[in-house]
Amino acid sequence: MSVSIRNLARRRQTASRIVFSKIANFVLPDWNISLVFVTPTKARLLNKQLRGKKYAPNVLSYALGEKSGEIFICPAEAAKQSSDFHLTPYTFHLYLFIHGLLHIKGWAHGAKMDRCERKLLAEYVTANSNRNRHRYVPDKNGRGRRNRR
Fold it and tell me: 96: pLDDT confidence band, cut at 50, 70 and 90?
């Protein structure tokens, strides 16, 4: 199982390869997944070619073979939409990746897919979120206290 990541969007990638690999290994074990971050222009072109649609989507995904698939995420579109989902851009990229994996797995939109996305997102965001680990230092009672470094 491997996830290869290419960033063609010239934006800083928000999640590590390890997190994407853990999620992909859970949803699609033994698959090779290619994750590509693209510009809105490229996303619009791919959407036109693959689906006949004229807009830039936030995510596109499809199976390439029996055990391989490709996911395209447009960070610019994701940034516009992340607040609509009450998620940070970091978390929204993971959500879109999970969404793409479930589509590759053959799932369609619906309540079952929504529940699975929420569950996986909650599990992997909390388990891999070390972004604020130095912000608060607990006091002697175990309560958070602002670190004054």
Answer: very high
